[in-house]
Specification:
The structure holds 2 protein chains of 2 kinds. By secondary structure, chain A is of the alpha/beta class. Chain A has helices spanning 3-19, 30-33, 37-50, 88-91, 99-106, 115-118, 136-141, 146-154, 157-167, 179-188, 209-216, 218-232, 246-261, 292-299, 328-340, 342-346, 379-386, 419-424, 443-457, 463-480, 486-502, 506-510, 513-521, 523-528, and strands spanning 22-27, 57-62, 74-76, 81-83, 109-110, 195-200, 236-241, 277-282, 323-327, 356-363, 369-374, 395-400, 406-409, 433-438. Chain A has 24 helices and 14 strands. A 5-stranded mixed β-sheet of chain A has the order 2-1-3-4-5, with helices on one face. Chain B has 7 helices and 5 strands, in the order ααααβααββββα. In chain B, strands 2-3-1-4-5 form a 5-stranded mixed β-sheet, with helices on one face. The longest helix of chain B is centred in the first third of the chain and has 14 residues, at 2-15. Classes of the chains: A alpha/beta, B alpha+beta. At the A-B interface, helix 2, strand 10, strand 14 and helix 19 of A face helix 2, helix 4, helix 5 and strand 5 of B.
């Protein structure tokens, strides 16, 4: 495909969509699929056929529509209405509703002006729910691959990197390293062979942002990777995706095939000299593989164990070649930055954290689901306005950053969510899982839960992590059974500091975070559990 | 049938040019074909990919996905991710362990395998389980009890 053909297809498909009387989007992300989205979709398809409306009304799958707790979700393009919890027979009514049907459907209609929808700002998820993830034409109609076209035909690699640097985009995998700087590091390496790797090993419990992006808008991740490949001088990309994400794997495979067929990937992208291929690597269930050096080992077919850094992957990564590793959400931010410009992106967010962040809301919260908000939005807005608050209970803490993060108590609800602020209060941005807990959650038990996770997932290579997590877990179990002593709490703190300072990789270094943050804000819960009943 | 499976496995290895780097992909294929990884299978793979058997066993045991023991007729995987945990996943696990088998094993009659997972990403449906490869959301211990009874498990 040439650039001209891309724009032609773009307007053709847009015109085709405009000619349709209605297009009904059924959310076919994993959450809605397990609530019966497929049955609903076939019921709608059957109704279109029965009414003889083929070619005038269309039904298609779509990415995550956000409000997972109300699944299966359906969006009707004609009037923009969003429906939740629709049984198949009611879904069929959407095709040609009469006034009685309309009334029946109205009861299932979700208010899209409600804060859950209105307070969001969608960049990464802009296409989620707007395009059929299994159709390339849908993505192109939404402006897809125009950023790649612009990059390879109008910009030099250095200009692409400058644009990313100007945007202030930082890694969305958790650590927040400036993306532009990372790209520049890789670009500067003289090696003729380089790699681009997309980290889709989303392992934090309670996090499903990357899964939703891959399921709902797989082409966007491919486009972001190809732009990165052009910028740093790589010709091969890998997506390392969790084995648990069957649907995401399937959608990615389809998307890669489509893009290769249209020469949007492969040799001579847009008939220029630039070539870029993408291959999938399926994880096999090891949390530590989210760590970049462990991920590299796993792509090489080895045990996913991290190694000493430096050298960092930008210098020596996959097969000892310079390797750029970014997370799914980071790559998904790239195309809009290239089309809209770095300055536009930098105008959103806070001083040090630009753009938006996708969060997966879960736990004791009214609206579980996927949201995207500008950086700097307060937790209070996220939990109480967008999330609808804590049903039938009182907010106790929000857990961010998964097993590497911490619990944020009520007093910090007004802290703006950005990389620095969350680190300052003892948690971290992490990849975006946000789990709300109410009074029924026992914080010592929560700390024990995360430590058990880290203990199981420790790869066993370095001793502080391998032995330290076991020791900390033992102490926490003792405390939850009410057999702990004051000395145990002191020992927890000592071990925590040791793990933080001496572990080889991020897993061990951050494993004590949930313990440390609960000790900081909920120490009384620990003390109340002591064998002596709180007395020293 | 036996021959066919060997042929498919061979094809997967040849697609990757018998490269040792493709070990994980090959193990995925082998497990899909055979259900679990037998010592013979691991030895064959080691020989064909020209890897030491220790490396193949090392990789096969490192990753949770690979199973060295046969699985039950039905499989139940309880998600123990944070969202499911705070919504009562332990109660589901307790039910399965009491009626079928300990997590990570198969019941004595070979009917049910019980496993746990670290977040399957279905947090909106917490607590969730994977029953025979399909995600089921908002499960209660009562639902599980009833289901196990229809499967003929006491």
């Amino acid at each position: 495909m040439t650039v001209e053909e891309l724009f032609e297809l773009h307007s053709e498909e847009q015109a085709r969509l405009r000619r349709l009387e209605n297009r009904i989007y059924c959310c076919t992300a994993a959450g809605c699929v397990s609530c019966g989205a497929e049955g609903l979709r076939s019921a709608i398809a059957a109704a279109i056929k029965a009414e003889g409306l083929e070619g005038r009304v269309e039904v298609c799958g779509s990415g995550c529509l956000g409000l997972c707790s109300k699944g299966p979700l359906v969006r009707s393009a004609a009037d923009g209405a969003l429906y939740g919890e629709l049984p198949p027979e009611e879904g069929a009514l959407l095709v040609r509703p009469n006034p009685i049907d309309r009334q029946r459907l109205a009861a299932k209609r979700l208010d899209t002006n409600a804060p859950f929808f209105a307070r969001q700002l969608k960049i990464v998820l802009a296409n989620s729910g707007q395009v059929d993830p299994e159709r390339l034409a849908d993505y192109i109609a939404a402006g897809g691959y125009q950023a790649l076209a612009k990059a390879v035909t109008e910009m030099t690699p250095q200009e692409v990197i400058e644009e990313i640097k100007r945007s202030g985009l930082r890694g969305r995998g958790g650590a927040g390293y400036p993306t532009g700087l990372k790209w520049e590091l890789v670009a500067r390496q003289p090696s003729p062979v380089k790699y681009v790797v997309c980290n889709a090993d989303e392992g934090d419990p309670g996090a499903f942002m990357d899964r939703s992006v891959l399921e709902g808008d797989p082409h966007r991740v491919l486009e972001g990777m190809a732009i990165a490949g052009y910028a740093v001088g790589a010709q091969q990309g890998y997506i390392y995706v969790r084995g648990e994400y069957g649907l995401a794997i399937q959608r990615l495979q389809t998307a890669i095939k489509q893009a290769e067929r249209e020469k949007l990937l492969g040799n001579r992208v847009f008939e220029t000299g630039f070539q870029f291929r993408v291959d999938l690597r399926i994880g096999a269930g090891a949390f530590v593989c989210g760590e970049e050096t462990a991920l590299i080992a796993s792509i090489e077919g080895k045990r996913g164990q991290p190694r000493q850094r430096p050298p960092y992957p930008p210098e020596s990564g996959l097969w000892e070649k310079p390797t750029l590793i970014n997370n799914v959400e980071t790559f998904a931010n790239v195309p809009p930055i290239i089309t809209e410009g770095g300055d536009w992106f930098a105008s959103i967010g806070t001083e040090t954290s630009k753009g938006t962040k996708v969060f997966a809301l879960a736990g004791k919260i009214a609206h579980t689901g996927l949201i995207e908000v500008p950086m700097g939005t307060t937790l209070r807005t996220i939990v109480f306005e967008i999330g609808g608050g804590v049903p039938g209970g009182k907010f106790k803490a929000a857990q961010t950053g998964g097993p590497s993060g911490g619990c944020i108590p009520e007093q910090f609800l007004d802290v703006p969510v950005d990389y620095e602020s969350l680190t300052n209060i003892g948690s971290m941005m992490g990849s975006g899982g946000l789990i709300v807990m109410d009074e029924s959650s026992d914080m010592v038990d929560v700390a024990r839960f995360f430590m058990e996770f880290c203990m199981d997932e420790s790869c066993g290579k370095c001793i502080p992590c391998r032995a330290g997590t076991v020791q900390m877990h033992d102490i926490l179990s003792r405390l939850t059974r009410g057999e702990g002593t004051a000395e145990d709490i002191r020992l927890l703190e000592e071990l925590g500091a040791l793990l933080r300072e001496t572990s080889l990789c991020g897993l061990g270094q951050t494993a004590p975070n949930p313990v440390m943050s609960t000790l900081r804000y909920f120490r009384h819960e620990y003390e109340a559990k002591l064998a002596s009943g709180g007395r020293q | 049938m036996q021959d066919n499976r060997a042929k498919f496995l061979e094809r997967a290895m040849s697609r990757h040019h018998y490269s040792g780097d493709a070990l994980i992909e090959v193990l995925h294929t082998a497990q899909e074909l055979y259900g679990y990884l037998t010592p013979e299978l691991l030895k064959t793979i080691a020989r064909k990919l020209r890897l030491p058997p220790s490396r193949v066993l090392g990789v096969a045991t490192f990753y949770h996905f690979f199973s060295l023991a046969p699985k039950g007729e039905h499989s139940y995987t309880v998600c123990l991710g944070t969202a499911c945990y705070v919504k009562g996943a332990l109660g589901l696990l307790e039910t399965l362990e009491r009626r079928c088998a300990k997590a990570g094993s198969t019941s004595a009659d070979g009917k049910v395998s019980v496993n746990t997972a670290r977040c399957i990403g279905a947090c909106g449906l917490a607590p969730a389980i994977i029953r025979d490869g399909e995600i089921v959301g908002r499960v209660t211990p009562e639902m599980l009890e009833a289901e196990l009874s229809t499967l003929g498990i006491r």
